Amino acid sequence: SRLDQQRSALADAHRIRTARFAVKRAMAAGTLSLRQALEHPAVQTMALPALLVEQPWWGDVRAGRALKTLQSAGVNRWLLVGELSRKQRLLVVVICLSHEPVRVQAEALAA
């Protein structure tokens, strides 16, 4: 029935929001890298900018700069994460790493 469909849709939406929150929290805590987050099923329907600002020490300005660089490299800034090709996902990680402070870059290379 229509009511069952609505309840099912609401339950699905709640499950996705909860999973996205867990991904965002793990990114903020530094326990989940951007590379790992890009592969997580819960974020496949998120817009790329929404994911980038969840990185530790990232905000609208740093994300905007990275997105501008990505766009100049041919990656549409408004693609959903799930629409990114493997090559584009790698490009996102590399470009975002280049927008990190030098200390963070060194830590990432050492890992």
Give an account of the 3D structure:
By secondary structure, this protein is mainly alpha-helical. It is 67% helix and 0% strand. It has helices at residues 2-29, 34-39, 48-52, 60-72, 86-98, 102-110. Helix 4 (60-72) packs across helix 5 (86-98). It starts with a helix and ends with a helix.
SSE blueprint and pairings:
Layout: H1 2-29, H2 34-39, H3 48-52, H4 60-72, H5 86-98, H6 102-110
Helix pairs in contact: 4-5
In short:
The chain has 111 residues and is mainly α.
Label this structure with key terms.
111 residues; mainly alpha; 6 helices; 67% helix
The total of helices stands at: 6
Alpha-beta classification: mainly alpha
Please provide the count of β strands: 0
State the order of secondary-structure elements, H for helix, E for strand. HHHHHH
| Major beta sheet summary | none
Strand percent estimate: under 5%
| Mean pLDDT figure | 90
Overall 3D shape: globular
The N- to C-terminal Cα distance equals 52 Å
Uncertain parts = none
